[in-house]
Amino acid sequence: MASEEELFANIDALLEEEPQLPPPAERARLREAAGITQARLAQALKSTVQTVKNYENGRSEPKSPRLEAYQRLLKGWAAKYPAHGAPAAPAPVAAPQPEVPEAFTGPAAPDVTGTETAAPVQAPAVQTAPGRPATSRRPAARKAAKPATDPRFPHGPLAVLDGDGSAYGVDGIVLDCPATTVPELVEWTLKESGLGAAKLNRYGKDSDPLIVLTAAAAVKLGLPERLEGHEQRRSLRLPEDHPVVKQVAKAKWQLTQRGFGPWARIYRKAQGRERQCVQLAILSWDALDERSWPGVAEMEPADIARVLGVYAQRVITPRGSTAVSGLELMTALRPPTKAVQDPETGNWVSGYNAGSLGTEPMDPAPPEATPEHPVVVNSGWTGGFLNEEAYQWVRSVETLSDEECTLPFAVGLDLNTAFLAAAARLVVGLSAPDHFHAPKFNPKIPGSWLVDLSHIELDPRLPSPFTPDGSRPTGPAWYQTHTLAYAQELGHDVHPIEAYLRRETGAYLDPWHDRLKTAYVDTLADMGVTKDLDDRAFLAAMEQHKQKDPALAAVLSAIKATVKGGVGKLRERPQGKSYKEGETWPALQRPTWRPDIRAAVISKARVNMHRKLNNMVKMTGLFPLAVLSDCVVYPSPGESPLDFLPYAASGKPQPGGFRLGPTPGLAKLEGVQSMLWAVDLMEKGLNPARHIKGGDAVLDEGE
Fold first, then answer.
1. Are 216 and 177 in contact (CB under 8 A)?
2. pLDDT score of 28
3. Using CA atoms, how far apart are residues 33 and 45, in angstroms rounded to an integer?
4. Which residues lie closer than 8 Å to 368 by C-beta, 6 or more apart?
5. How confident is the model at residue 17 (pLDDT cuts 50, 70, 90)?
6. CA 41/CA 48 separation, integer angstroms
7. Which of 113, 124, 510, 633 is in Cβ range 3.0-4.6 Å of 625 for a Cys bridge?
8. pLDDT tens sequence across 175-212
9. Residue 650 CA to its chain's centroid (Å)
10. pLDDT tens digits, residue range 579-611?
């Protein structure tokens, strides 16, 4: 007879075995008895509808931790819906069992008949996947998933795929991806993943799902871990004869003209309204530029998914660099077409969407183009060009007073997303330019004007508002409307010699501004920098906000890069050594190649900066030492802007000058140095603002 020790050992062995599930047919019966759709169960298990179908037809079995959760659910249903009409076991009075196990409870979802789509439920607690240690790859605590805004995309806009097949999505979701080739990955993404995002405008298109590949995932799919070559890695592409490119073509998928690079788009022609397109981003190929996404490429997959997910939900699902995403956001918010009814046939056809840039590219006026543009080269234009750029000005040392030189500090103030603030309520041209001779200046008409402003005398301790380097104009030059309107505001006459003006106008960038402003302010608020802080508390919060949450700090950096890059892309120059002057380049085929809109944004931003500089002189008598783009350096008696900014007797900031705050257009402390250091740089002809900020005044016009 067996001893007690042997019996207990056998029982312990049974307890250690994996949980046993009922047969596949019984799993389906229990789910149907509970009135739960496969889609709703898939959302609760953080899986896909196809995976649930596989569980119920016996093709696959769940693995830990999904196994234990699924077993708990089935046991709960089995107690309430026993087979063969047997009565359900009575629940203990002291501890009544919920209808659905606690780990899966969530907001009630409507029962959907005849479809696999249902409202999402709250996410269960995510546990470590089998065979993976409990490391920082998955945060220790996660918030429950927020209800999806569109039931077609229950798992959010994107996922980060690791080498073991785990696809990390937003809000802590982890999907199992069985793909071993790129075509399989595309099929899984479109048919099973539940990834994507709804359109941002009623006339627009849904955002295609984004799959971000770690280095391990790239290698697993047959891609090289790194792209090597003489060009920058972000400009490299796989050769046409690479096995992966051949796989894509053999599976009847296509690549865009950009080829298979760090940001690859794989698609088939749309069938009806259904788009078939997946965006890939390959981390080890430098898809995420360190300047725009600081530290993100080195994060764990779950953290990368969080950063990109927040950006996708607040801005747009990334489509390439932040510059590309900034431009794509403009089109997504102002689609070029909408459905209109043909009055003759009564059929619905594609028509122009008022307020957009339309579907066809538009040639700029010669002074708005770049020197290599075909409009310039083919016409032999020699009449000069619009030079509306951001400030790069340093004050002459000879204009410094003894009192200024004795102040101990040089304090840098940076305007929050100054170019975004300039885009607010900005009226730009929507039609082609018309040429006029000796027109009367009208500040309400956007365009380019040839005017002589060299006669205007301004204080040499301030930069000229008419030139990027702050120097006085030397003769007739081309100016954007905002620059000349400011000359009138300062009390000077404006007499244009000629002009290129646009008859149709509109605030094209308004929705772009509003969405990015909300994203910027909300992200800062999540980091503890809110609008209700007074100036002292604001400065204290800004000192710590980047350390408080590096992931959100990366999102904030990406939002700012989206603004500058998007504006820069409006005048993207040709790239590559093989380009010859006078040839077209790909960017010219976009309706969004609009150098006049870029000039309008920069002109307004520079005018806004000069207006603040001028008002500061009137209120405080202080003159700046240097200006770089959106950063200005002032001499100061102390280390804080509070030591020199103008405040009313009530303690409130004076309007018109620089004010501190988290809103676009308001200022924050950028850096503090000694006055001797600043004067030394100025004597060498260098800009203290460039060194105090460490930034670049040029708006990115490329990738």
1. no
2. 87
3. 18
4. 385, 386, 433, 448, 500, 595, 596, 599
5. low
6. 9
7. 633
8. 999 999 999 999 999 999 999 999 999 999 999 999 99
9. 40
10. 888 889 999 999 999 999 999 999 999 999 999
- Per DSSP, which regions of 504-546 are E strands? 505-506
Instruction: State phi, psi for 69 to the nearest 5 degrees.
Output: -65, -40
Decide: residue 476, CB within 10 A, 0-12 exposed, 13-18 middle, 19+ buried: middle
Which one-letter DSSP state was computed for residue 130? T
> Cα–Cα distance between 213 and 234 in angstroms, integer?
15
What residue has token string 């179908």? 53
Rounded to 5 degrees, what angle do the CA atoms 474, 476, 479 make? 105
CB burial of 173-205 (b: ≥16 within 10 Å; e: otherwise) equals bbbbbebebbbebbbbbbebbbbbbeebeeebb
Place of tokens 């900014």: 645
DSSP letters for 220-281: HTT--SS--SSS-GGG----TTSHHHHHHHHTT-EE-TT-SSSEEEEEEEEETTEEEEEEEE
Q: Which amino acid is at 113?
A: T
Q: Which amino acid is at 61?
A: E
Task: Convert the pLDDT of each residue in 325-361 to its tens digit.
Answer: 999 999 999 999 998 888 888 888 889 999 999 999 9
DSSP 8-state code for residue 579 = -
Cα 433 to chain centroid distance, Å, stands at: 31
**CA distance readout (Å), 149 to 50, 273, 302, 313:** 22, 20, 22, 10
Lowest-pLDDT range, 29-33, 84-88, 135-139, 333-337? 135-139
- 2-6, 510-514, 642-646, 691-695: which has the minimum mean pLDDT? 2-6
Q: Edge-to-edge strand order for the sheet containing 631-636?
A: 392-394, 626-628, 631-636, 409-415, 667-674
Can you read off the two tokens belonging to residue 641? 């802007």
701: CB partners within 8 A, 6+ apart: 568, 569, 571, 572, 573
Q: What is the mean pLDDT of the chain?
A: 86
Overall size of the chain counted in residues? 703
Torsions phi, psi of 336, nearest 5? -70, -25
Residue with tokens 């500061």: 616
What lies within 8 Å, CB to CB, of 62 at 6+ separation is 21, 45, 55, 70
Enumerate helices (H) and strands (E) in the chain, giving the number of each.
Answer: 20, 20
CA distances from 666 to 185, 530, 561, 661 (A): 45, 13, 18, 5
Count of beta carbons in the 10 Å neighbourhood of residue 48: 24
**pTM for this entry:** 0.79
Residue type, 565: G
535: tokens are 């100036």
Identify the band that residue 88 occupies on the pLDDT scale cut at 50, 70 and 90: very low
Phi, psi (deg, nearest 5) at residue 669: -70, 125
Residue 65 bridge partners (DSSP)? none
